[in-house]
Write a structure and sequence with these properties.
Elements lengths: L11 E6 L2 E6 L5 E6 L2 E2 L17 E2 L5 E3 L2 E4 L2 E4 L9 E3 L9 E6 L2 E8 L9 E10 L2 E10 L5 E3 L2 E2 L2 E2 L10 E3 L2 E7 L5 E6 L11 E2 L6 E7 L7 E6 L5 E7 L5 E5 L13 E6 L5 H4 L4 E3 L4 E12 L1
Antiparallel strand pairs: 1-2, 2-3, 3-4, 5-15, 6-9, 7-8, 10-11, 11-12, 12-13, 13-27, 14-26, 16-25, 17-20, 17-22, 18-19, 18-21, 21-24, 22-23, 23-27, 24-25
Amino acid sequence: MPQTDQNATGQQFTLAHGDQRAVVVELGAALRRYTAGDRPVLDGFAADQPITGGRGQLLVPWPNRIRDGRYHWHGEDRQLPLTEPRRGNAIHGLLRWTSWQPQQQEDDRVVLAATLWPQPGYPFHLDLRAQYALGPSGLSVTVTARNLSGTAAPYGVGQHPYLTVDTQPVDAALLTVPARRRLRTDERGIPLGSEEVQGTPYDFRGPRPIGSLRLDTAFTDLDPGADGRTVVRLAHPSGEYGTDLWLGEGARVVQVFTGDTLPGPERRRGVAVEPMSCPPDAFRSGTDLVALAPGMHHVFRWGVTPWRV
């Protein structure tokens, strides 16, 4: 059974498979730590420290930002709390700072659950399950939402892990993002439109160093492999080892963030590679937004595979 104990982020659920170890916390069901052998795969956080920069957090029932926290749904105007007040946005959902409780526990797997109760700005009732599992191919994550409301609910989901390949800052790390387009945004991080990456500094379809480029960028029009998964790769400059983050069922957009707005010691220390079911501001634009019907489920899958040549 996974090891558990109490800390500032609640119970700590330690998973093990071979030389891999992962730690998931009760607070927000966040992914705190992941190692393969002696190598950290994630730039995570300590159990007794506040979670900053969205590190490892689940983003439900929307990822990224909603401009002004306002949206219109089925004839009604809704106002969400402005959780990014400096930019006037509602950011990263409603369950980051709530307790998620264990439902199933094994040595290499844990399932945590939370209820999203109807509330001002989001009067919908959702049941959430987050499964983390370690196996031969790495860590897999499955997030399932079920609508307990009597009406359809707007829904999106994402997660916010930071990858590391022992390069600080991240400039020398080799990044590959198999995407044909990226979203242009305003100063508040809200999309203005999209453009092809070809011929721009944002073309990472082949591996290349991040350099001094500041990324807080949503990539779309993803190019999946034969297995239907899109793989974003972060590799050490030597090319000898790295990490693949794959996007599976329900994941249609990936946000890449180099952490330039984080506090000094955390700035450009890791690369956030955020699988998302929809782009920023989807509650307003409707792009890839799920209308989750009463009693229906939505499934979102992604995972991480460390590798070494």
